[in-house]
Amino acid sequence: MIKVGLDQTPPMVGLALRFSTAALVLGGIILWKRRKVPFDRASIQNYLVVGLITMAISYLCTYWAEKFISSGLTSILWAALPIAVGVFARFMIPDERMRHVQILAVILSLAGVIAILSDQQLIFSPEMLLGGLIALTGVVISALSNVFLKIRSKPYDSLALTAMAMAIAAGVHLIGATVFGEWRKLVWDFKNIGSATYLGIFGSAIAFYFFYDLLKQINVVKLSLVTFITPVFATLIGAYWLKEIITWREIAGMIFIFVGLFLYDWNKYLVLIKIRSRRNPHARKN
C-alpha cells in the first residue's frame, strides 16, 4: 500500500496523511473511553523517542526507499529487524545476551542482506542501491527505538503511547511537507487517499497499538520476529498486483535471513516440539 500511494504522493505528504489518520482514530478512542494521557517526564520521553525515531525518521527512510526499490525487496530487508534488535539488546538489555549460535544467526542474516544488495539490478543502478541502503537505515533506527522502549523501567500506556507518537510524527511530516512544497504534488484521488487511510487505520493505529502492548509482555527479539511474515506476503502481493520482478538473489537472501531468524531462537522451538511430543505420545510412536 505504501508503494501504491507513492505513485502520486510525495513521501512526507503520505506520512503526514497516514499518521494524522492514525492519531485521529486513536485520539477518538481515548476520548470515547475517557482515558487519561500521562504527561510525566518518562511518558513524554517515550512519546518523543517513538514519535521522532520510529514513526518520523524510520518510516521516512522506508517511504523514501520505496521510491527506488520494490515493495517486496523493502519488506525482505525489513526482515533483518530481529537481528538488529538482537544486536542492540546484546548491549542494552542484561537478560538478553547473545549466545554463539545467535552470533552465527546474525552473520547468516547479514549474508542474506549482502546477497540481496549484491543483486545486479541494484549494483548497476545507483538509485536502487541507495534505496536498499536507506531501507536498512530505517530498520536499524527502528530497532534502536524498540530496545530503548523495552529497557524503560516505568510501564507505559500502550494506547496513549501509540496515539501521541502518531500525533508527533504527523506534526513533523505536516511541517516537512509544507516547508519542502510537497503538498502541491499530491494528486487527490481515491487511490492515494485510500492508501493513506488504510495505512493510517490498519498499518498504524491498530498494528502499532498491538505491537507496543505486546512489547510490555514479550521478549523484544521474539516480538520483532513478526517481520518474518511480512516479506512472504508483501513479495507475493507485489509480484501479483504491482507486477514486481523477484530475482533469485532476493529469494536466496530471504532464505538466509529466515535461517538466521530460526537459529536465533532455535532452543525455544526444540522445547516446543518436546512439549507437544510429550502431550501426544501416540503421534510420536507413529
Description:
The chain is an all-alpha fold and 286 residues long. It has one domain (2-285). Helix content is 77%, strand content 0%. The chain is built from 15 helices and no strands. It has helices at residues 2-6, 11-33, 41-65, 71-78, 81-92, 100-117, 120-123, 126-150, 158-179, 190-215, 220-224, 230-241, 248-264, 266-279, 281-285. Helix 2 runs antiparallel to helix 9 (158-179) and helix 5 (81-92) packs antiparallel against helix 6 (100-117). The longest helix is centred in the last third of the chain and has 26 residues, at 190-215. It is globular and about 55 Å long. The model has no long low-confidence stretch (mean pLDDT 83).
